[in-house]
Amino acid sequence: MARSLGFATLAPAGFSQLVWAIERFDAVVAVAPVPVVVRAIASVSLPPKRRTPAVLALDRDRRWAVPLLAAHRGATALARRLAELTGATAVLTTRAEALDQPALDAWGAIAPDPLPPQLQDRLNHGAGLRLRVRPNLRLPGWLSAIERAPKDTTDIVEIVVSEERTTPAPRIIPRTLVAGIGLEQRATADDVRRALEAALTEAGLEWAALGAVATIDRRRLHPALGALGLPVVGFAAPALAEVSVPNPSSVVAAAVATPSVAEAAALLLAGETAELLVPKQVLGPATVAIARRSAPLGMLWVVGLGPGSPDLVTPRARGVLARATLVVGYDGYLEQAALLLGPQARTRGFGLGEERERARYAVAAALEGELVAILASGDPGIYALASLAIEEANGRIPVEVVPGVTASLATSARGGAILGHDHAVISLSDLLTPWETIQRRLEAAAIGDFVVVLYNPRSARRAWQLDKALAILGAHRAPTTPVLIAHDVERPSERLELTTLADVDTSEVSMHSLVVVGQRATRALGGLVLTPRGYGAQR
Predict the structure, then answer these.
(1) Which of 66, 95, 150, 213 could bridge to 91 as Cys pair (CB 3.0-4.6 Å)?
(2) For residues 497 and 82, what is the distance between their CA atoms, to the nearest angstrom?
């Protein structure tokens, strides 16, 4: 069960371990009686800013899966998944679930948090829902769609949508603010956070309304920005220099080739209709400006689903898929991820070979305020969509690449440790790369004595390239060199074969296969294959 859910396990676990897990993890499934789990929850003191974890109880006979904490933040979805895996019944006791009504705490940033329970109770009993939007704010379709008329009464629950702290509660806080930040190399995370908090407080704005921070490209990877927990977008100096700002600086221009970083970056990411709410403020080594968009800032995640097994989907990928309002991908990937999506998620499928179309669609949706996840198998940065998505976004929206377990890593692990030393990864597909270039890379890897991982090894249209690649490698290593071939690794139809360069049979290799050719020190041991770690071991 834990393997299918992708969980770490603490089994068997005592009461103290259960309390420890609830304090530290985002989701906990306890195979224990409900009273025991309730007592453990009551014993927990969550630190400030720690999100309430999803906690479920599953009885030992696997009859009942009961969400006990954070039902609308993952526990209900987990209960349904448990029911599918174990045959248990998901015991969903919240009124919102029973009536298929929206849950107020599932919408993201709200104030106050938690909202008064009587508001949800009114919705549960048929009250209508109306969003009162501050002037000049355009909502994305997914948020507007939650409005509804009352069923049997004139009772209306009104929720304000605003970034301003003085707006009467209850309210939803839209992610419409962009912080432009200029910083010296010596700046710390505390320096940047203090500057941001001072600017937001002075303007009466909520921190939760920050959708992203923007800066000059040379500072995008600065650790002080990464520590904020917000998406970071970087712009080249020439792009920043073209933005008209109220407070240009000749000193800044001399240093970084643009008269403005903070104001220009904020306005550039906020778009054509941006309002500069807070002109640049200098606080020590950090300079901050705040701009507001006319619509919530969208987000694009490029998510790696791993090689196929559910437990090799990373927790970070699961978290992103639970948050996304739109999930884009090849139809097969959407099917693979179906049980990981949140209840608010819509999907848009594409056929094989439509990678650029997927990227364009995903970026366009994110520009309209959607929280978009675009799916890739394995790792999205390896022969996948990450590069296309970054090119298509071109700095207009935040992009985050969520890494995944690659097919090469999964294959090596299933076969032993063939990637234990230096290795090269080469695709044999000549659709985007000329064969002459592929051949030069194969020859270089062969001369360098790398273990070589061959992606896209053979298809119906490309039947000869694999044999040619093996011949190039074979010219520089012994016929007894181990070769590991994996078909559909980490999928139900998985099949692995350990052979040698002399005996390899390429006839059954396909686009669903991966071929790994060892180097001179690679050897088989007890049915596993390994490449020794140290150079000394190869002499």
Answers:
(1) 66
(2) 34
User: Where is 256: in which H helix or E strand?
Assistant: helix 250-256
For residue 170, say if its preceding peptide bond is cis, omega within 30 degrees of 0. yes
Instruction: Name the CATH code of domain 2-93 (choices 3.40.50.11220, 3.30.70.20, 1.20.910.10, 3.40.50.150).
Output: 3.40.50.11220
Q: In the chain, which residues fall in CATH 3.40.50.11220?
A: 2-93
Other Cβ atoms less than 10 A from the Cβ of 9: the count is 11
Report the distance separating Cα 449 and Cα 427, nearest Å: 18
Q: What is the pLDDT of residue 105?
A: 52
Report the mean per-residue pLDDT for the chain: 88
Query: What does the alpha-carbon distance between residue 64 and residue 409 come to, in Å, rounded to a whole number?
Result: 37
Distance CA 512, CA 528 (A): 22
> What is the rounded distance in angstroms from the CA atom of residue 386 to the CA atom of residue 300?
10
Paired sense of beta strands 399-402 and 299-304, if any: parallel
Distance CA 539, CA 530 (A): 16
Domain 300-405 is in which class? alpha beta
Rounded mean pLDDT, 7-30: 79
Alpha-carbon span 27 to 8, nearest angstrom:
10
Range 16-33 average pLDDT: 86
